């Protein structure tokens, strides 16, 4: 598809690719270089990374696109982001993709309290994009994408960016998002993965998935998104029902993961960003799992 040359079909999403801990930096740099060698063309840094963190990952690689997924508009001033985007684009030949989002009020400990649009996230994003458009060195629409879940933000992503980076979604959401976006904009959902070897403990895999999901189920934006998709409040309790876990995760061996990825492509995705979930997620660099997935996934098309 149209985005294969830049992003490939499957990329890696990981908060552990952040380099805010100097002691971990050599490990992260080595892991990023291996991901590129494995054939992943897109590396997505989770956890509201700064452009400086993207810079560090760009420096550790030579071909891969590095995306922020997502940079919170509440934490990073638009004029500074525009200036840094211009520098990174100049230095790394367009390998930096600025993923932007309004994030979650519950997660920001006061960052939004003094913002005049704190309770109007859609308007806040439009205003932020206006600043990027009018900066001395503007961020082009093709150089940015939006973390969009609902219809209004998806339409904004289509109108004013490369496209959408939905997080914690299902193939059904992907089909709806494609209808809203239209045929051309990028649609690159994230998909959580628990890789389970043959004969592995499926109950433990579900426990690992549920433990991680419980954080997101405390955030109103994700709860509302899942309710719009037809889940009930009971599905969101106690870390998520089995039905919910099976909808928003891919759990199983590499073949099972590939089948779930294909379901997203069949629903209209251009690219799928895989997040390998482990008990130590956030600090783990699950390199063995990344290698296994690279052998099974359609990285190029």
Describe the structure.
The chain is built from twelve helices and eleven strands. With 301 residues, the protein is α/β, with parallel strands linked by helices. The strands form two sheets. Strands 1, 2, 3, 4, 5, 6, 9, 10 and 11 form a nine-stranded parallel beta sheet that branches. It has a two-stranded parallel ribbon with strand order 7-8. Strand 1, helix 2 (25-38) and strand 2 form a beta-alpha-beta unit. The chain is globular and about 55 Å long. The N and C termini lie close together (7 Å).
Number of strands: 11
DSSP helix fraction: 40-55%
Sheet bearing the most strands, described? 9 strands, parallel
Approximately what portion of the residues adopt beta-strand conformation? 5-15%
**Which residues sit in consecutive blocks of at least 5 with pLDDT less than 50?**
109-113
> What sequence of helices (H) and strands (E) makes up the elements?
HEHEHEEHEHEHEHEEHHHEHEH
Structural class estimated from helices and strands: alpha/beta
Mean pLDDT level = 93
Radius of gyration: 18 Å
Discrete helix count? 12
Estimate the global geometry from the Cα principal axes: globular
From the N-terminal CA to the C-terminal CA, the straight-line distance is: 7 Å
């Amino acid at each position: 598809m149209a985005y294969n040359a830049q992003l490939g079909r499957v990329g890696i999403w990981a908060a552990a690719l952040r380099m805010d801990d100097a002691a971990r930096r050599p490990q992260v740099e080595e892991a990023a270089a291996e991901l590129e060698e494995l054939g992943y063309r897109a590396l997505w840094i989770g956890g509201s990374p700064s452009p400086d963190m993207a810079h560090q990952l760009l420096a550790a690689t030579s071909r891969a696109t590095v995306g922020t997924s997502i940079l919170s508009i509440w934490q990073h001033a638009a004029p500074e982001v525009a200036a840094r985007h211009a520098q990174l684009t100049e230095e790394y030949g367009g390998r930096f993709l600025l993923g932007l989002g309004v994030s979650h009020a519950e997660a920001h400990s006061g960052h939004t309290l003094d913002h005049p649009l704190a309770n109007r996230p859609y308007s806040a994003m439009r205003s932020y994009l206006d600043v990027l458009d009018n900066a001395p060195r503007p961020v082009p629409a093709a150089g940015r994408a939006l973390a969009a879940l609902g219809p209004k933000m998806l339409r904004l992503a289509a109108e004013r960016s490369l496209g959408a980076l939905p997080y914690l979604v299902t193939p059904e959401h992907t089909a709806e998002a494609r209808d809203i976006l239209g045929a051309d904009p990028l649609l690159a959902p994230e998909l959580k993965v628990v890789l389970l070897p043959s004969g592995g403990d499926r109950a433990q895999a579900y426990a690992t998935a549920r433990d991680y999901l419980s954080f997101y189920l405390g955030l109103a934006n994700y709860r509302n998104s899942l309710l719009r998709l037809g889940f009930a409040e009971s599905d969101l309790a106690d870390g998520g029902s089995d039905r919910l876990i099976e909808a928003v995760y891919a759990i199983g061996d590499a073949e099972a993961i590939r089948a779930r990825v294909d379901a997203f492509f069949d629903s209209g995705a251009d690219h799928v960003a895989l997040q390998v979930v482990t008990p130590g997620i956030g600090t783990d660099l699950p390199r063995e799992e990344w290698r296994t997935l690279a052998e099974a996934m359609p990285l190029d098309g």
